[in-house]
Each structure stands twice: as C-alpha cells, then as structure tokens.
Amino acid sequence: MVFLCNYVLLGFKETNSYLKNCKTIFTGTPLREQFYKFNFLPEWVPKGNGPLLIVMGGSQGAKAINQILYESLDFLIKKQFRIVHIVGESNLKPFHVKNSKNYIQKKFTNEIAALIQNCDLVISRSGAGTINELMEAEKPSILIPYPYSKNNHQEKNAMILAASGGSVLINQNNMSKEVFEETLERIFKIKSKKGKKHYEILDLMKKNMENNNKIKSKNEIKKYIDYFLKEF
C-alpha cells in the first residue's frame, strides 16, 4: 500500500533501501512515555553486585529464549548474574535453583522501561519496538530474532544494532547452550586497566549504543502531520 502514499514515515533509516519508489522521511518510532524519563529499578529486582540481565521475548514470550535460559541457569547463578526473566503469558512455570534469590520470573511487567534503563544487558527478540527501546535507553543486548517473522524482518532489525557494535546477534537455528554461555562469558570477561577492573567488551557495546542517533519521534511526526495538513 505504500505506493498510494505521498510520504512514508520511517522508524529506521535503513528501511529506505527497501522502498525505492517511495518518498520517505525518517522520524523514528514513538515509544511509551516512561522511556523518555528516568525510572528507578523496581524493588522486586534481585539485589546484589552481579551484572543484571533482563531476558524477554515479547508479550507472548519466546519458547526458544526461555528454554536456553532454563538450560543455562546453573551457569548464570554460578557466575553471580542477577536475572529478571519475563516469560510471557503462557510460559510461566515453577523453577527452583540454588541461590534463587538472584533469579526472578514474571509473566509480564509494566516496568519494562525501568528494567531496561537500569540493567547491564538485555537478551531478547528483535521486534521494531524492542530495537527502538534499546536505542533510546542506549542499552547493549544479545538479540535472538524470531526466525519465522515475515520477510525475516526481525533479523534485519537486529542487524542494525549488531552493525553498530551495540548488540550480538545469535541465530536461533544456530543457538545452543554452549554458544549462549560462551557469548555471555566473552561480553562479561573482566579486564584490568590502571588497577581498575571492568568489562571491556560490555563497555565498548555501551559506547557504541550511545553513538546511535536518537530522535524525538513524536515531535518529528507531529511536525510533518502539521505540515501536510497545511499543504494538502
């Protein structure tokens, strides 16, 4: 239907390459208001000094992501990660692990902005909404695209952040417990610099996310709507 439009407003600049015969304008994608202000970490999040991981698969959850997380829980707990696992409406199941104070499982939460803003790394699918939320929060991620999305759009979304160096893309068909754990070990490998310990790769991913161009989408969209109303 885009050929019937005078202009097409784009959530990603890269989409322009798929719309050769259209007049396009990059406006970004509007997000929930909570992403445009700072939110404190919810009280129910596991306390401690270990890196905080937010694992999610969208409103319905993601069976493959949930499964790899379950398989790697012993590894994650041993490495002292703190984990908030958003499993989706139909995927909640009791799961007991040693030191489970570092792992919390929820069907759904309205505090996703606070979680993303305050965590160290997000592990997720790569829908357009999630990509824009990560960009706004400047948050590093491991992205596991849904392999059956129409026109493979989730992988194309993930490649935008992977190409910038802010995300690691793992193909679900190539994902295994070993690949997942090795990726996390690499991202959170501790390096020493001038006597101070830090996560070299994670810090680089954060810096790369800060370099992504952010745009006030709602303001841009309103500006063009007001303009078009006057012109047409």
Kindly describe this structure.
By secondary structure, this protein is α/β, with parallel strands linked by helices. It has helices at residues 63-71, 73-78, 112-118, 128-137, 153-164, 177-187, 200-210, 217-231, and strands spanning 8-10, 24-26, 52-56, 82-86, 103-106, 121-124, 141-143, 167-169, 190-193, 196-199. Strand 6, helix 4 and strand 7 form a beta-alpha-beta unit. It is globular. The model has no long low-confidence stretch (mean pLDDT 88).
Brief write-up:
The protein is built from eight helices and ten strands. With 232 residues, it is α/β, with parallel strands linked by helices. The strands form three sheets. It has a six-stranded parallel beta sheet with strand order 5-4-3-6-7-8, with helices on both faces.
Please describe the topology of this protein.
Elements: E1 8-10, E2 24-26, E3 52-56, H1 63-71, H2 73-78, E4 82-86, E5 103-106, H3 112-118, E6 121-124, H4 128-137, E7 141-143, H5 153-164, E8 167-169, H6 177-187, E9 190-193, E10 196-199, H7 200-210, H8 217-231
The coarse silhouette is globular
Query: What structural class do the secondary elements suggest?
Result: alpha/beta
Low-confidence stretches: none
The number of helices is 8
Question: What is the count of structural domains?
Answer: 1
What is the architecture at the second tier of CATH?
3-Layer(aba) Sandwich
Q: How much helix, percentage-wise, in residues? A: 25-40%
